[in-house]
Amino acid sequence: MNPEYFDAQLTPLDWQQVDNLRKHVHSCGVFKKIDLVITSPLFRTMQTAGVFGSEGYTDRMDAVPLMVANAGNSDRPAISSLDYPPIIAVELCREHLGVHPCDRRRSISEYQYLFPAVDFSLA
């Protein structure tokens, strides 16, 4: 049980896949049909939910960021929540509630700082 895997984050390849999926979701029109996004309250799943945000967030926007810049030392820009569907983190959506480091998560207060637009009321 390697502690390095505690609440694992996306790898550079994973981020590339998220970026590609974001472009696809927006270009094919699926984005306009999504009313709600449910995610597990694990770091990597909330990073992946960034598919439904948009790049180019600035502090002057009239919305909180979906993910703050460099969340978890990701070296990634902030993701905008402007015109995005609501995202709710639900504890029971986790794959496992086990003892392995990858199955454990950070505190909700830490997540609320890193993912301000995500609703954690069910986590």
From TrEMBL:
GO terms for molecular function: phosphatase activity. This is Phosphoglycerate mutase-like protein. It comes from Actinidia chinensis var. chinensis. Signal peptide: none annotated. Gene3D superfamilies: Phosphoglycerate mutase-like. PANTHER family: BROAD-SPECIFICITY PHOSPHATASE YOR283W-RELATED, HISTIDINE PHOSPHATASE FAMILY PROTEIN-RELATED. InterPro entries: His_PPase_superfam, PGM_Phosphatase. One of its GO terms (cellular component) is cytoplasm.
